[in-house]
Amino acid sequence: MKSSCVNSEIKSFNIKLMKSVREYQHASILEMNTDRKLFANHGLHLNGLGKEVLSKQIVSLTYAILDHKQDPLNIFKLELRSKSHRNTSSGKCRN
Predict the structure, then answer these.
(1) What is the residue-wise DSSP string for 13-26?
(2) 62-65 CB contacts, 8 Å cutoff, 24+ apart
(3) If both were cysteines, with which of 7, 85, 92, 94 could 81 make a disulfide (CB 3.0 to 4.6 Å apart)?
(4) Dihedral through CA 50, CA 34, CA 25, CA 9, nearest 10?
(5) Backbone angles phi, psi at 8, to 5 degrees
(6) How far apart are CA 86 and CA 63, in angstroms?
(7) pLDDT of residue 31
């Protein structure tokens, strides 16, 4: 499948960004997995699986940076609440 010129520009920019970040030891780039199964039907936002994969990548990178010896993925597990548990307030601030 042919990609759009916008996708080509994004890839080009990402390559330049990665090259410039390599010069700094205090900076890291987390490459996002763009597998379609990790995104909602419309393709813009991450679905539950995508959020889980990304959060594990963030935790792993954080522990790698901090040089911890523990397995970061076995320390804790957060469960996502279902839509039925979301706040249904009117959105107005309470004093």
Answers:
(1) HHHHHHHHHTT-TT
(2) 65/28
(3) 85
(4) -140
(5) -65, -40
(6) 31
(7) 86
pLDDT at 95: 45
Q: DSSP letters of 27-89?
A: ----PPP--GGGB-TTSSSB-HHHHHHHHHHHHHHHHHHHT--S-GGGT--PPPPPGGGS--S
Of 74, 82, 80, which Cα lies nearest the Cα of 56? Answer: 74
* Distance (Å, whole) CA 72 – CA 19: 28
The pLDDT value given to residue 2: 63
Q: What does pTM read for this prediction?
A: 0.58
